[in-house]
Amino acid sequence: MVRLNGDEQPLQREDEHGGQKSVRLAGLLCRDKDFWEWLHQDDQIFVPDEKEATDWLRNATGVASRSELKTNQEARNHLDRINKDFLKWKNKRS
What we know:
By secondary structure, the protein is mainly alpha-helical.
């Protein structure tokens, strides 16, 4: 037995779990003090803390809750871009 996607094609294992990975990534980012600093230095948040980062990330990805990342591909794509930009900034600091 195999799961099917919306086009009645076999669902790739990566696609099946991509939403859950995005939910975890969002949680990790919002608890990362470097992420807070990145947002703060870019004037995206006023106070570098988890609450501000969480509110900013929900707004930036257009979701009311991280759980929406499970089913919202556009929000996941935006989260991936944010993470890539953050990692690029973080690697420059090292």
